[in-house]
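The pair is quoted verbatim underneath.

:::
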Amino acid sequence: MSIVADQITSSDEEDFTPQAAPDLESPRVNDLLRVIKTLSTSSGSKPRLSESQLRGLLSQTKLLAEHDGSFTVNQYESELEWLLVSKATIQTYGVILNTLLDQIVPLSDHLWYWDEVLSSSTYSTLFMAQTSPWRLWAWTLDIYEDSKARLQRYTSGRTSAESTDGNESPVPRPTGLSHRWGQFYGIVRETIRERSLANIQRRIMSPVAVARAEARRKQARLKKLREMTSSGLGVLVDEALMFGGNGSEDAKSDLIASGAQEWRGIVERSVALMDMILQDVLSLDLNIPQFEDKVFAGVDEDPELSIQAEEAEANRPAIVARRLHRLLTAQVPEHRAAVRTIVKRNGRPPRLVRYWLPATALLLSSGTIYRIFVNRQEEILQWVRDLGVTVRDFWFNWVVEPVRKVVGTIRHDANSEIAIMSRDSLKADRDSLERMVVDFALDKPVVATGNSSLSKAQVAEIRAKVKEGDLTPVLRAYEKDLRHPLRGTIRGDLVRTLLIQVQKTKVDVEVAMSGIDSLLKSQELVFGFVGLTPGILVSLGVAQYLRGLFGGRKGMNKTRRARRCVRVLRNIDRIFSEATASPPPNNVLQYKDHGLLISEVHVLRRLAHRLLPKDIEKEFLEDLDDLANLKGIGSQLRALDRIRWAYSKWLK
């Protein structure tokens, strides 16, 4: 629910119950009750009705038609009419509030654009280049219109002179095309010279300085529009439809009567106030105090108020209804059109003006770009295909396959085990070494053990020692053959012992590798996740980039919304800083400052929606209401501080 809906709902909750006896058998009473039910904020999900709906509902009643004295209503119908126009006034109040808010909020973007143009000479030069064709066109059109008017005056003056001297003998004058063109050229040259003398500023200042002066003038115009609209919004919120008073002993004006005054007079004055605000809010030549004084004076002197007009009490609802219909039919649309005109003249240039330079460059180079695409069509298609293949291979080789391996590791899949040597390689080499040593000992028992033969127990002992890495029989023969290496080589014993030791070295290497293999198997899951991490990180980065690229137009993400909320809170703090620089005597914000505060709170409410949890959002809206309500600057500053520390977790 927006701040406009809250204002409408709070005003509509006032008790307007008719006191007269009801007459439910009258068709007019039933029609009035039906319209009143439609105008009530509690009758539907949307408390604020549109302008077309309000105009239609007012047209359904007989209040817009002019009646003579023969048309009479009873007391109950009169009270229902007042109830109807009160509901319609509340809805119209919401329409005007929403209109003013919708006009204030976008002005910040235009003011930011002009701040950016004036803050840098580069941007000022760019603005000058962007608007130079339109400046030249406006100057040419001005010269043409002025020269055309001069030519018409010259032609009409010559015709009148000829008619005056009609009795005299005519003097032949050249009428050829070259003479006429020479006259027109002379007029144009004279016009240009006069324009140059009139616009002496353009001849003294550089084009960039002229562009900066124009930007500064438009910025000042928009700031004045923002201040006037904010003042009108503040007056409307603080003074209109104050049925229960403003809740403070220090009233900001005596425009709205106290709680003892009848609500019918409050409705009339509120309608007059809305009328005067729409009439004078665009008077940018007035300052803020003059605008406020003019609005209040206009309401006090309004000829259609019951205290000023000499109308019968029965006709008062019809007068208010016709005035509301006039507001909705003419004044609100005219006000919006006038604001659009002012913003169009003084706001940031349209996209055509801002982007005609790159668009022109793109258009001029389009032929070259087209030829490049045509001449390298096959290469471009091949690049696209290679890109697709690269993306597909990356996905399957670096994401799908590592995931499959990690799942296999978790499930102890035999095919997914990490190994740097085959499973049965060490056992086979160890058995081979054992056979080599035993065969050597059996073939050379004397050299190996010192006995002529070996028993089964000795063979079993040799086998056990070989398993432990002891090759004593082989080493004894090797040491003996080293005394006579040539003879040992010829017999083959030296070569045989060397080969057995090579096999022993191979077994030792495989034992070490088996230890490393066991270590790798114990950390197999860790290595699986390490292999999966790069693919997952790259995939998440690309997905985040694509979501930000294509999903940014659908709505701001939470981070951007939170940052903008912080900027809005900063704007609110600036409003209070400027207001407290010269404290008002009644410790209440001025109308302009209150209007700016309401517009910022309106933006903050929309940004905070879906940014905070639902239970926290309810408390946040309560604090925003404390911030926007006029309970004294001190109370509002405490509410601002409470918002900062209480919701800093979500507004980072």
About this structure: Confidence is low (pLDDT under 50) at residues 167-171, 246-261. The chain has 26 helices and no strands.
